Amino acid sequence: xxxxxxxxxxxxxxxxxxxxxxxxxxxxxxxxxxxxxxxxxxxxxxxxxxxxxxxxxxxxxxxxxxxxxxxxxxxxxxxxxxxxxxxxxxxxxxxxxxxxxxxxxxxxxxxxxxxxxxxxxxxxxxxxxxxxxxxxxxxxxxxxxxxx
Length: 148
Known about the structure:
The chain is α/β, with parallel strands linked by helices. The protein has seven helices and five strands. Helix 4 (44-55) packs antiparallel against helix 5 (60-72) and helix 6 crosses helix 7.
């Protein structure tokens, strides 16, 4: 688990799907972490998951608009050959150890490892990925308004 002090030193933060959703919901701790980061990185896989969720929701247009606005303020991490190579190594290592995680999450982890950035997520299984710095947040109901 990476400390907040280290995040401040680096200033970069990658976001998992649930972190973007928590930001949208105004979860205070997540909003603070995201607002305090100098650079937000959103893996393209996360954008796909968010857009799928928007299409699958009752408020499709509203949710799609939020995703596109949020991405405007972020760097999008594309999948390239270096991410694909890291994905293969991570997936192989997790399989070898008997610790599979969801397929999309392996892509997200690989992108973060290539960029050497911590991942903000609520999913504990990311801690199974060797070398991946993970920042998590508590289950809290405290919210604040976000203007994206």
